Amino acid sequence: MTALDRLRRLLAIIPWVAGSDGVDITAIVDRFDYPRDELLEDLKEVVWFVGVHPFTYDCLLEMTVDDERLWIRYGDWFRRPMKLDTAEIVALHAAGRSVAALADGDEMGPLERALTKLSAGLAVGGDKVVEVRLGSGFRDLLDQIQDAMARSTALEIDYYSYGRDSAGTRLVEPHRYHADKGHWYMSGYCHEAGGQRMFRLDRISRCSPTGIPFSWEPNLWETAGEDPVGGIPVDGSLPEVFLELDAAARWVVEEYPHTGLEEVGSGRVRVSLPVSTPSWLERLLLRLGPSATIIRADEGLGVDVRTAAAERLLRRYDR
Q: What is the pTM assigned to this prediction?
């Protein structure tokens, strides 16, 4: 199973076991199709550490495994109301609505109830409901992508590549679409690139059906040989920069493909990033500022890159 498969099963197992007076390990394995060794490992290495700050023993789930039987008990902190600020509520509501836009009506029960509660939480005093409407642009674009996938016909798109800092027209055979970290993506074969690529929908300025048919075998994506997000290869074919990042800059590890990661301590990490173009690296370093230190870099990608970019900005805005 993938990490996501295991997480989904654990999220179902915990409340099921907590609502019973102990459950046989074998029953859990059979009911949730969870390999025994992986289940015991995840109970010990994951569930055992679920809790709230400061993660002392009184703030963790109470879990007991004895004589092939498992007990899970919630702490008192589970009974406390969840406190969310307005920004967190809006973010959750927007994410939920984006999923609801694609879900069947029959599947909307729990999600719809949760969204209604979140809407009520947005209103001052709690006696009014605030409705958050997502723009129709992505819905129209997703409809075009779904239609092209159903017909197995290519799309022509105008796309801005953040990594290369350039815009251009692409002929794409759409294979999949998904949402991740607040963004929608379409993956498929790009004729211009000659391989599989991932396209962020908010960077597509135009999308037109072409009627050009294509055929696709699902295993092609898995054998593409490159990182899916952004289509940046991580096989050593690109020059690289090695950065040390403060804890506040760890988002870089999740946002961009990398070829190596090392924990330094106190939340700091060292990461090797493939560099598609110097302009991309310039923007990243300026965005990170003092929270990133260049440890080493291939020729032409060192400290001089950040310095030159900063000097150009100062000249531009110097009055």
A: 0.41
